[in-house]
Amino acid sequence: MKKTEWDRVLIDIGSTLAKNPGAEKMTTILSMSYFDIPHHLRTCLLYLSAFPEDCKIKKQCLINRWIAEGFIHEEQVRTKYETGEDYFNDLINRSMIQSVDVEYGQAKACRVHVIILDYIKCKAAEENFVTSTDAAEHVCSTKWKVRRLSVSNHTGENVTIWEHPMLSHVRSVTIFGDPVETSLLPSTALRVLDLGGCWDIKDHHLASIDTLFHLKYLRLSSESITKLPEKIGELQYLQTLDVRDTSIQELPSTITKLQRLSHLYVHGGIRFRDGVIGQMHSLEEMREYGFESDKQGKTLQEFNKLTKLRTLKIKLNFDSLNGCQAQDCHSYLGTLLSSCNLYNLYITEYSHVNEYPMSLDSWHPTAPCSLQKLCIKGIFI
């Protein structure tokens, strides 16, 4: 039997045990483990009940959602994200979540075992912490006002979350499957809108995004999305914007109005207008800036103005550059080491031919460098 088949057997056994009303001993053991962890970790663990069974949950997305929900408080000398990583690793060490995609000893994602997931879903329902529902069911079947809503829509049809008093205080909406119309969502308290598991959202679904004034976290993952509305700049509290898996080619210049934006995730094909990057003063992390022309190389210099920037991932396309442009790019990147407070710099190179190999000998920071991790994949030698 293959390992994947044994894993499936284990999941099936766990699911059977979790649904067995006579499994009091198992519930007692889980309760002891649950109440043994600190209160702040319990809150973060309960939050995982918003994700479906066997879902791979990216660490990046999860920690940024915890931050948006106010579960993590900034400590002295450390960012909220760094503290969130400690929470994440602590849950792994306590065997409450399973590590996934481990690189250099660090998990990039996690899963929740079906037995634990069943337990925390029950706890979340008891405490009205997360309301999980199928789109075919009535969203507002609960007797309490919904605080956090997780919807699985596999009906093959678009479903509308209609205006209802039960949704007037919802803080978080997560949607998996087919699109769910959110333009009618009445909540002004919404902090998190995660459509990363919703694969056919279109531009018009975002038409009223500016009405969600208190939004702190927005994740989109649909190739049908080609642009963000100009009114995105009205989201004054937005901290995390994730549009990696979309067809957006250029971000609107109004993104400069997002003065609390600290985490920006884009794909390498997204362009920025001149001067935009240099005005994003709260940016702590950006993945992944695409470099395909000399004009973008000049834009790359704008990162020098971002004093809070700690993590930067850059994707180079040398197929579209001539020799001089490639050399300029190399020079810009070397300057970043001296002029930024970067802790982590990732450089990946895309090229069909190895025409412009470059030496790193010239990368000598002129001042003390704060860089802790430098990851280069490509033609540098």
Structure description:
The protein has two domains: about 5-120, no CATH class; about 125-375, Alpha-Beta Horseshoe (Leucine-rich repeat, LRR (right-handed beta-alpha superhelix)), CATH 3.80.10.10. Helices cover about 25% and strands about 20% of the residues. It has eight helices and 16 strands. The strands form three sheets. The protein has an eleven-stranded parallel beta sheet with strand order 4-5-7-9-10-11-12-13-14-15-16, with helices on both faces. Strands 1-3-2 form a three-stranded antiparallel beta sheet. A two-stranded parallel ribbon has the order 6-8. Helix 7 (about 295-300) links the parallel strand 13 (about 285-290) and strand 14 (about 310-315). Helix 1 (about 5-20) runs parallel beside helix 6 (about 115-125), helix 4 (about 60-70) packs across helix 5 and helix 7 (about 295-300) packs parallel to helix 8 (about 325-340). The mean pLDDT is about 80.
Can you tell me the CATH superfamily of the largest domain?
Ribonuclease Inhibitor
Mean pLDDT: 79
The proportion of strand residues reads 15-25%
Number of domains as seen in the coordinates: 2
- What's the shape? globular
Distinctive features:
alpha/beta; 8 helices; about 375 residues; single chain; Leucine-rich repeat, LRR (right-handed beta-alpha superhelix)
Layout of SSEs?
Blueprint: H1 3-18, H2 24-36, H3 39-47, E1 57-58, H4 59-69, H5 80-93, E2 98-103, E3 106-111, H6 114-126, E4 131-134, E5 148-153, E6 159-160, E7 172-177, E8 180-181, E9 192-198, E10 217-220, E11 240-242, E12 263-265, E13 285-291, H7 294-300, E14 311-317, H8 323-339, E15 344-350, E16 373-377
Parallel strand pairs: 4-5, 5-7, 6-8, 7-9, 9-10, 10-11, 11-12, 12-13, 13-14, 14-15, 15-16
Antiparallel strand pairs: 1-3, 2-3
Helix pairs in contact: 1-6, 4-5, 7-8
